[in-house]
Amino acid sequence: MINVNKIREDFPILNREVNGKPLIYFDNAATSQTPKQVIDVIVDYYSNYNANIHRGVHTLSQEATDLYEEARLKIQKHFNAKHSYEIILTSGTTHGINLVANGFSSLIKKGDEVLVSALEHHSNIVPWQMLCERTGATLKVIPMNDNGELIMSEYEALLSEKTKLVFVNHISNALGTINPIKQMIEMAHKVGAAVLVDGAQSCPHLKSDVQELDVDFYVTSAHKMCGPTGVGMLYGKEEWLNKLPPYQGGGEMIDQVTFEKTTYAGLPHKFEAGTPNICGGIAFGAAVDYMNAIGFENIASYEHELLEYATQQLLKIEGLKIYGTAKEKTSVISFNVEGIHPYDIGTILDKLGIAVRTGHHCAQPIMDFFKIPGTVRASFAFYNTKEEIDALVEGVKTAKMMLS
Ligand code: C6P
Predict the structure, then answer these.
(1) Known catalytic membership, residue 203
(2) CATH of the domain at 149
(3) For a pLDDT cut of 90, what percent of the chain falls above it?
(4) Which residues form the Aminotransferase class V domain (predicted)?
(5) Are residues 107 and 119 in the same domain?
């Protein structure tokens, strides 16, 4: 059970006002808020441990290294990776996808096919298009239906021995659809294709077990799950990470360097060139601890209640249409009100202290599918309340009255 009033005490930012009104934060899919348990770890790091890692014999460096590697272990345990060296600490989801897409340049060729779902964020489209441009491979799209669900029969038809890679998000950022990734991974493996799952939107809502999913690559960002920005993780199966070449050259990722030849470090360091976001990595570990202490089952059932309530209340507004009505859906509502631009609704909501995202949500192909310029997106977290949803509904009514 979620004690939302107690949880809200963990988030200092929820006490602030915006435009003279208490902040109502419904832009959680863009970035989540940070609890004091994570903020304290950041302050503690810079107050007591700040040093470069994996390099110094001095105490500070060793302590910082231990904390950073401890965080990697927490992340490994959370996602149930078999080995800690299968967890590559990145700057976020985008970095993880680019690392893999770049590595596949030497593994795929003209005539090969890669499949992308129609529900992707630009981060999980553009790097693969660039890969196809480099290699001559062909990009094909798994289509969706009007509810925003992938059409599995079409997916099956697209899979063949030519398919080398499938990339799909676990949860769509624009519509909230939860994709049947376990089934999709099984189907891809039958034709010998590897699968990369973009977990940017799933990590705040559910706990993914990479071994149970048998996924080849799983990527996410800490800032979506109560951690800081600028840090994330790429999980890769050991055999795949060994096949991929390093992404960036520099310090930390080497074994031996001479002017004639460089040999590379083993996993995970082969993919971690340069000084990483040390504090961010440690705080990522703290965020994982924080969310597990609340419990993902509690989070999922509470957020589902919020989703159901908000859907019912918003649909009472005449002319309001929700995009994304999948059976399996998380606490994201994308909507428009007939005749009103989403940006205008977002602006009025902001005047009322309500933060939502408006626009194409970095998922233009989804907007093209629905033939709309964008939507208003309200995305809920476990620290939101039904009272806040009531304020959103009133806010949308006010906006409608003012703009129509
Ligand atoms: N989506 C949103 O408002 P980064 O920026 O690397 O942390 O995450 C990119 C990303 C990749 N995949 C999905 C499914 C995402 O939702 C995001 C980030 C935010 O929806 C900001 S654009």
Answers:
(1) no
(2) 3.40.640.10
(3) 98
(4) 24-392
(5) yes
- CB 256: neighbour CB atoms within 10 A? 9
Give the separation between CA 198 and CA 181, rounded to whole angstroms: 10
Same domain, yes or no: 154 and 286: yes
Instruction: Specify which residues 375 forms β-bridges with.
Output: 359
Q: Are residues 270 and 375 in the same domain?
A: no
Q: Is 188 left (phi over 0), alpha (psi -120 to 50) or beta?
A: alpha
Q: Which amino acid does the sequence have at 283?
A: A
Distance CA 158, CA 140 (A): 8
| Alpha-carbon distances of 161 from 9, 168, 181, 194, 259, rounded to whole Å | 54, 19, 20, 12, 42
What sign does the CA torsion over 49, 54, 56, 58 have?
Answer: positive
CA of 403 to the centre of ligand 1 (A): 30
Give the residue-averaged pLDDT of 205-215: 98
Measured CA to CA, the distance from residue 97 to residue 196 in angstroms comes to: 8
Does residue 149 sit in the same domain as residue 178? yes
The answer to whether residue 342 scores a pLDDT higher than 90 is yes
Residue 311 has pLDDT above 90, yes or no: yes
Amino acid found at 69: E
Domain holding 326, by residue range, is 4-27+295-403
> Do the Cβ atoms of 87 and 222 come closer than 8 Å?
no
Instruction: Give the end of a domain, one of 264, 292, 320.
Output: 292
Residue 56, pLDDT score: 78
Residue 33 domain flag: no
Which of 239, 273, 292 is the endpoint of a domain? 292
The model's pTM: 0.98
**pLDDT for 33-73, tens place per residue?**
999 999 999 999 999 999 999 877 999 999 999 999 999 99
My answer on whether 230 and 334 are in the same domain is: no
Helix (H) / strand (E) containing 233: strand 232-236
Residue 200 alpha carbon to ligand 1 centre in Å: 6
Domain count, the chain: 2
Whole-number Cα distances in Å, 143 to 146, 149, 240, 276, 328: 10, 8, 27, 38, 17
For ligand 1, atom 5, name the residue with the nearest CA: 94
Ligand 1 contact via 379 beta carbon (within 6 Å): no
Residue of minimum CA distance from atom 19 in ligand 1 = 30
In a domain, 44, yes or no: no
392, two tokens: 């959103």
Read off the CATH number of the domain in which 357 is found: 3.90.1150.10
